[in-house]
Amino acid sequence: MDRSSLSVVVPCYNEQEVLAELYRRLSAVCRESKISYEIVLVNDGSKDRTWPMMAELTESDPTIVAVNLSRNHGHQLALTAGLSICRGERILIIDADLQDPPELLPEMMAKMDTGADVIYGQRRHREGEAVTKLITAAVFYRLIARLTDVPIPRDTGDFRLMSRRALDVLLAMPERHRFIRGMVSWIGFRQEPLVYDRATRFAGTTKYPFRKMLRFAFDAITAFSVKPLALASYVGMITGVFALSLLGYSLGSYLGLFPGKLERGWTSLMSVIALLGSVQLMVLGIIGEYLGRMYEQVKGRPLFIIQDIVRAAARKDAPRLEEVPQSPGLSTETTASA
Predict the structure, then answer these.
(1) Which residue has the higher pLDDT, 43 or 247?
(2) How many CB atoms lie within 10 A of CB 67?
(3) Distance between CA 278 and CA 296 in Å, rounded?
């Protein structure tokens, strides 16, 4: 494949309201850089006009690559699909909502010119976000910093500029439950922050409600730490010691070794049963999370399925569909008409 100097990869889900502005700002900053570039837009099973709008952009701009997934795979896998087909020596990852300003690209490029392999955006201030989201985000980043052995920078998202060699290592990692910002940190190489103020969403609504954020947090923790399993063992040992102590006290009271009368009743018995039962269920739940992820991983299914790839041919009015390598995702064979 012909290499371009820069690839911009953007996963999109129901982003018809922001797509035109996204294209305008990305194209402007890429043209100003005066290097060869491509913009890879990934449609993650959108239910609105996101995909038709992407396909229309390829007809007027040969730098646009439109990727259509077979269904909604989720943000991290949609991003992985775009990364798997991009052809740039440097790769900018950015979300479609324009909370992360694409105008920071020149500064990122300049910092990478000094020898860094990853320039990641680090949020100094987040405008227009609820207090609850700010608190949960702060707790998440500090919790995962304590649970993992890999130093993951705080207050960072997927907004970053990567070198081709860093991306090649990332694509060689086969995890299904992906936490890409943590996976990039695990790679190593020289990584430097770029501090910026995060803006409010340009249009539309967030695609990460609390339920998805909670699932994402579980994926991140289980993908990068086995400490929850150790925690389950510690809790089991502590409650075991407590149960043995209570058993010793009960036997001692029965034999008259301790002063006072042993109270007989359901209260103490049910309290102990409830305590031990809840701890056992918690431990089994933690183990189940890891086993479930192992089960999904060993099935070996492709991470994503690409239905269509539309890339402008030599004539701007003749878009074409291409195939991509079969791993880690899968591309179905289709035909296109100009």
Answers:
(1) 43
(2) 31
(3) 27
